[in-house]
Design goal:
mainly beta; about 15% helix
Length: about 400
C-alpha cells in the first residue's frame, strides 16, 4: 500500500502543472522576434498587447483579441507608427473601449480603440516608456518613466477617458526619482498605488486621485517592485523582485514574504496567487504564509524583457473571475525567433490540486486515488487545449 501511495504522489507531481492550465496557445506572427507584454479582459474576450517584427519594421504595435474560454483567436490589429521601436506594454477595458499604452519610437503613446479593434484614437507624450495602466472608471492612471538627460525618472499620468487628454502628471525628477514606475493600481478606498524602483531598490508611492502624494514607502528590498493588487478591505499586496509585501490601506507594513521573485499576482477569496521565479505558482494566505505551490509546465517558463530596453524581467497578465490570463514568450524553432505565448490558469484548479496533494500525504490511499482520478480526467480533457505547447 505504501508503494501505491508513492505512485499516486508521483502522478500528482507530474500532472499538476498541466492540469491548472486551462488552455495555452502560441502565436508566431513573424519570422523574427515577437513578444506580448500585457493582457486585459473585457466581456468574453482577452486582449493581448505587445509587438511583432513587421515587414521592414524594427517592431510594430500588435493586439490580439482572443476568446477567454478557449484562447481561440478572434481578431488581430497591427500598426507601425515609426521606423524605430514600437511596442505596446499594458491595457485595460473600460465600458466599450479598450485603452492601451506603449511607446512609439521611445515616446509615450496612449491608445483608445473600440472592443472590436475597428477604430483608433491615440496621443503621444513624453520621451520614455509607459509600463502600466489602470482605471477607476472615470480616468486612466498610467505609470512608467520619462527620460531626463538620458536618465529614466518616474512619471505618472492621469488622463481623461473620452479624448485621452492629460488631466495631471507627476514627474519625480530628483535623485530618488531615478528609475521606473512599473505598476499602478486603484485601491478600493480610492488611492492610487504606484510600484517601482530607484537607485536604492523598491519604492512605492501612494497618491490621491489628483496625483498628490499621500505617502512614500521604502520597504528595503533590492531591485524593484513590479505591481500591486488589493483585497476587499483595501490592503495592498505589492510584489516584485525579492518577494511580496502587504500594507494596510494607509501604507503600514503588515507582513512580507521574501526569497523569490514575484512577477505577477492576483488576490481572490482570501488567497494570494503569485507567479514566482517564472515557473512556480505560489499560493499564500492573507498573512503571506505559504499554503502551497504548483510548478507550471516547462514550456511556460520563458518570458522576455521589454524589447529594446534593459529592464527587470516581468511576467504580465490579467485576473478575471478566478482565472489568470498570462503572457510571455516561447521559441517555436531556432529560425523563427521568439513567439507569443498566452495561457490561462484556473485558481480553482490550483486549489483542487493543493487539496489533492494534501490527501496523498495525509489521507487513506482510497481517498488519494479518488482525488487523483479526478485530476487525471481534468488533464485528459485539457490535452487538446494545451496541444500548442506540445
Amino acid at each position: 500500500m505504501a508503494r501505491l501511495l508513492l505512485v499516486f504522489v508521483a502522478l500528482f507531481s507530474a500532472v499538476a502543472g498541466a492540469a491548472v492550465v486551462k488552455w495555452a496557445v502560441v502565436s508566431n506572427p513573424s519570422s523574427w522576434i515577437d513578444g506580448p507584454y500585457g493582457a486585459c479582459v473585457g466581456g468574453g474576450y482577452v486582449y493581448v498587447v505587445g509587438f511583432d517584427s513587421g515587414p521592414g519594421a524594427v517592431s510594430e504595435w500588435r493586439i490580439e483579441k482572443r476568446d477567454k474560454s478557449s484562447g481561440g483567436l478572434v481578431k488581430t490589429w497591427a500598426l507601425d507608427p515609426t521606423d524605430g521601436y514600437d511596442v505596446l506594454t499594458s491595457c485595460v477595458v473600460v465600458g466599450d473601449r479598450l485603452y492601451v499604452v506603449g511607446y512609439a519610437g521611445f515616446r509615450w503613446a496612449v491608445l483608445q480603440l473600440d472592443i472590436d479593434l475597428s477604430s483608433l484614437r491615440y496621443v503621444e507624450g513624453a520621451a520614455g516608456v509607459p509600463l502600466s495602466v489602470a482605471s477607476d472608471g472615470q480616468h486612466l492612471y498610467i505609470a512608467g518613466f520619462q527620460y531626463i538627460d538620458f536618465v529614466p525618472h518616474w512619471r505618472v499620468e492621469k488622463r481623461r477617458l473620452d479624448d485621452l487628454s492629460l488631466a495631471s502628471a507627476l514627474l519625480l525628477n530628483s535623485t530618488e526619482g531615478q528609475g521606473a514606475a512599473w505598476g499602478v493600481g486603484v485601491s478600493p478606498v480610492g488611492y492610487i498605488w504606484v510600484a517601482g524602483n530607484n537607485a536604492t531598490g523598491w519604492r512605492i508611492e501612494i497618491l490621491d486621485r489628483n496625483l498628490s502624494r499621500v505617502a512614500v514607502l521604502r520597504p528595503g528590498l533590492e531591485r524593484g517592485a513590479l505591481g500591486v493588487v488589493f483585497d476587499e478591505g483595501g490592503n495592498a499586496y505589492v510584489y516584485g523582485d525579492r518577494g511580496v509585501v502587504k500594507f494596510s490601506k494607509d501604507g503600514m507594513q503588515l507582513a512580507r514574504a521574501v526569497g523569490f521573485d514575484a512577477m505577477e499576482a492576483a488576490y481572490a477569496g482570501g488567497r494570494l496567487y503569485v507567479i514566482a521565479d517564472i515557473s512556480r505558482l505560489l499560493v499564500l494566505d492573507t498573512e503571506l504564509r505559504k499554503i502551497g505551490e504548483v510548478y507550471l509546465p516547462p514550456e511556460i517558463q520563458k518570458h522576455q524583457r521589454i524589447y529594446g530596453i534593459e529592464v527587470p524581467q516581468k511576467v504580465s497578465g490579467s485576473f478575471d473571475r478566478g482565472t489568470l490570463y498570462m503572457v510571455g514568450s516561447t521559441v517555436v524553432n531556432t529560425l523563427s525567433g521568439d513567439a507569443w505565448l498566452i495561457y490561462a490558469v484556473s485558481t480553482a484548479d490550483v486549489d483542487l490540486y493543493l487539496l489533492a496533494g494534501a490527501l496523498t500525504t495525509a489521507a487513506p490511499v482510497a481517498m488519494a486515488a479518488a482525488a487523483l482520478t479526478g485530476a487525471y480526467l481534468v488533464v485528459k480533457r485539457r490535452r487538446r487545449a494545451a496541444a500548442a505547447l506540445a
